[in-house]
Structures are given as structure tokens and as C-alpha cells.
Write a structure and sequence with these properties.
- The chain is mainly alpha-helical and 188 residues long.
- It has nine helices and no strands.
- The protein is elongated.
- The mean pLDDT is 89.
């Protein structure tokens, strides 16, 4: 049986998409290569025709996750978005319940740090988030510092809410953080 010319490229993209979703949902360590490939109907050995190592897959999947966020944002919003809207989107129920479609920072950033493998892509995403948050504030160091605090609150709230067993506690974390961070912006 002959494969289409772009079969390898399509398979590569399927692996990236699945890995990007699983790493965001389950984490890097909990995502095994064998179950990942099996879910796609592929063999574990076939993985190495596409990637040098799991670390290579992690880096490329992180890039794919960021690209997917950009695509989703472009489909829903204009290029500029207010800091308050960004906070609402980040702490939305959909983002909370569907980590495989959302920001990779709550799931992946601590693991990358623990593995001693911080990524330039993580830095890029953090800087983009900071830029978005600062856009609606007065210029200066105070706005810059406030955007770092707000971004840290967003990611931290998502981590805590997803770790809470009690759904009411999770919602309280998201709502309280949303309200407090938006108040910080109003005071900027």
C-alpha cells in the first residue's frame, strides 16, 4: 500500500497535536510515548521517525500549543484585547475544564523547570501575556510590575483551581482571582 506524499508530514502533525493536548492536560511526565502513539494507531518505534527524543517532542509540542492558542484567539478576537477581557478569558470555565485546549503554562512550566529544561517558548508566551496585560495600563515600571503580578495570579489560580477536588472551591478561586486582578487593572 502506497502512502500519500504528505503522509509523513500529516502523521507528524497528528503526533504534535495529540502530544500538545496531552502535555497540557496530563503533564509531561504522565504522558508516555507508547500510550500516545497507540492512541493515534501508531507504533512506539515509529515515534523516532518523527522526533529525536521525548524532549524534542516536548519542545515542538509546546510550540504547537502556543500556535493553537494564537489560532483560537485570532478566530475569536481582534489583535488587541483589553487586560480585563484577557483575565476573563484566562480564568473562564472553558479554560479550567479543557486544559488540553488552553495555555500550557499551568501544566507544563513547573515540570519544565523541575526537569531543568526551561524553554524559550515559555519565555515567549510569558512575554506575550505581559505585553497584553500592560497594553491597557499606564506606561512605566509600576504597570510592568503589576502585569507580572497579574500574570502570576492567572497561572497560579488555574493551577490551584484544577487541583481542587471541591468544584465550589475551584470556582471560588477562579472568581475571587478574576475580581481581584481586574480591580488591580482598574487601579493602574
Amino acid at each position: 500500500m502506497r502512502y500519500a506524499e504528505d503522509h509523513k508530514s500529516q502523521t507528524h502533525q497528528r503526533i504534535l497535536n495529540e502530544a500538545a493536548a496531552r502535555f497540557r492536560r496530563d503533564g509531561i511526565g504522565a504522558t508516555g510515548l507508547q500510550p500516545l502513539m497507540k492512541a493515534l494507531g501508531l507504533t512506539h518505534g515509529g515515534f523516532y521517525a518523527h522526533f529525536k527524543s521525548k524532549d524534542d517532542l516536548v519542545e515542538k509540542s509546546l510550540r504547537r500549543a502556543v500556535d493553537q492558542l494564537d489560532e483560537a484567539r485570532a478566530a475569536r478576537l481582534s489583535e488587541t484585547v483589553s487586560a480585563a477581557t484577557f483575565i476573563d478569558m484566562y480564568l473562564a470555565t472553558e479554560h479550567f475544564k479543557e486544559p488540553e485546549k488552553g495555555c500550557p503554562l499551568p501544566t507544563m512550566s513547573s515540570e519544565l523547570g523541575q526537569r531543568g529544561q526551561p524553554s524559550e517558548i515559555t519565555d515567549e508566551l510569558i512575554n506575550r501575556m505581559l505585553y497584553t496585560l500592560q497594553a491597557g495600563m499606564s506606561a512605566g515600571q509600576e504597570a510592568s510590575d503589576k502585569s507580572v503580578m497579574i500574570m502570576s495570579g492567572l497561572v497560579g489560580a488555574m493551577v490551584l483551581a484544577r487541583g481542587a477536588k471541591d468544584p465550589q472551591l475551584a470556582e471560588r478561586i477562579l472568581q475571587t482571582t478574576r475580581d481581584q486582578l481586574k480591580q488591580q487593572i482598574a487601579e493602574a
